[in-house]
Amino acid sequence: MAHRILTMADSRRSVTDEEIVGLIKSGRRPVWTSSSVAEEFDITRQTAHARLKQLEDESTEVMSMNVGQATAYYVTGIEVLPGDNIKEQHRHSIIQSYSDRFVGLESEPWTAIHPNDGPAEGGDKIQLFVEGVPGEWNHKNQYLWENRREELQDAEISNRRTQALVSGKLYEKPTTLIEHIDYSPYGPDWDLEKHIGINKIETEMGTALLATGVKRHWIQPWNDAVFLTDVEVDWISPQGEGQELPVWGFDASGDEVENELIEEAKETAVEDLEEDTE
Asked: Rounded CA gap, 62 and 10, in Å?
């Protein structure tokens, strides 16, 4: 899915495709309508309708069905959670996403920490700095357990996404990296088969594919790659509870302009300064 940030005509805020898909995957409700998405992101219903329709047309995940006079959008296989507690919903989603997840280094799949700083192998415990929304969780940093953090600083926390410190125990199992990493750094149209070379060979079991070429390390089997188990969320700042960080936009001419949020942030900073000097 292409990453886009569209500036809304009503100047309320910008919403990415990933945020909308993450909301649909959040498990907060089984289906979402244009009205419910508009309310969640503080955008117009017309804008929400257009974005949802576009996602349905372009994405293989988002689907729709008619319910009375409304169109309901959903993603299959999402567990619906009771209540409306974002912290618990996101905690549950993170644990689901990181259980049995590959966390080894692309260059050294047998360790979750670079050998110069670690290593962290099967049986060791580590901590991750996780950020995102349901369906789009990613981690920035991985720490040895003895270097784990208790919480994040205010400057690291945004209300647009959830941030969390997540711990787990490493275990080893055979795998191929092509199953777990983005092997196409040059875009979705990059031809993997052309670069690694695919040859058909006949065996007693039938036709098999033999991969060769200069990029063969991408499909090389690793018997001791490390994955995460016993996952726990040590600390979490759920979406909506962090700082409203300044957002920059662009006008039709391409000139950089300040978003209303920046002006509000400036006014707030001045008010705070005046209060401190009184």
From this structure: 25
